[in-house]
Design brief:
This protein has about 250 residues and is of the alpha/beta class. The protein is built from ten helices and twelve strands. The longest helix has 16 residues. Bound molecules: adenosine-5'-diphosphate and magnesium ion (MG).
Length: about 250
Amino acid sequence: MIAIRNLSHRIGGATILDEVSLDIPRGGITAIIGPNGAGKSTLMGLAARLIPLQDGRVEIDGQDIARTPTEELARRLAIVTQRVGVASRLRVGDLVGFGRWPHHRGRPGPADHAAVEHALEAFDLTALRHRFLDELSGGQNQRAFIAMGLAQETEWLLLDEPLNNLDMFHARRLMARIHALSRAGGRSVVMVVHDINYAAAWADHVVALKDGRLDFEGAPREVLTGARLSALFGMEIAVEEIRGRPTVLHHA
Ligand SMILES: Nc1ncnc2c1ncn2[C@@H]1O[C@H](COP(=O)(O)OP(=O)(O)O)[C@@H](O)[C@H]1O
Ligand SMILES: [Mg+2]
C-alpha cells in the first residue's frame, strides 16, 4: 500500500496540494483522474520522491520514503513521468536498458538483458530498438519510456498519462499488458488517465483530485457516476451502463 498522509505542497504562494490523505491499495490498477492542474502529477512526483516532500508523509509498503535510500526506492518503485526532456540521440534499446540500472549499477547480466528483451517485446519495440528517440512517432516514444519503467521490474509502477499519443490498438494493448502485470505479475500500478472509460474498464480503484484536494475515491462502479464526474469537471457529464460498466458519453 502507498499510504499518503496530510500531504500538502506549495509553490511560491500557491497551494498545489492541500492535506491529501489516501491509501493506494497494493496489487491491481489505481487510476488517478481529475482536471488539468488538479495536482495529479505533483502527487505522483511526491510519492516517487522526484519532488522533495514539504509537508506530510508517504509510506510505501510500510516504509517512509523520506528515510528510504534512493537505490532501494528505485528497486521498489518506477515512475514514468509526462514527457521529460532527454537526450534524443539515445537509442530505444539503451533507454529501456536504463530501467535496469538500479539492479546492476553498470554491469548488466543475463537477467537484465532478459528484462529488456521482455519489455521491448511487450510494447512492440523490438524492431525499433536501434532507432534514436527523435526518430520515433509520439506514440512510439511514449511506449519506449513505459517499457523502460516496466524493465525496472518494481513492485510499484507509476505512469503519468501513459495513454497520451497512443492509438486505440496500442492504448488497449497497454492497458491489457498493465492489467496482466497487476494480476499474474502481482504488481501494483498507479496511472493518471484522462479517458474515464479506460479507468472504468480496467482500474480496480479510482482516485479523483480537484484543486489540490482529494475529491472522491473508490471502486469505479461505485464512484464513476454522472453526478460525481459532472462536479469534478464542472460540466454536465452523462454516464450510462454499457456491458455492466459505467461509460461516459462526453464528446458532445
Ligand atoms: N514547478 C512548478 N512551478 C510552478 N507551478 C507548478 C509547478 N509544477 C506544477 N505547478 C502547478 O501546480 C498545479 C498542479 O500541477 P500538476 O500536478 O502538474 O497538475 P495535473 O498533473 O493534475 O495536471 C498546476 O496549477 C501547475 O501549474
Ligand atoms: Mg499532470
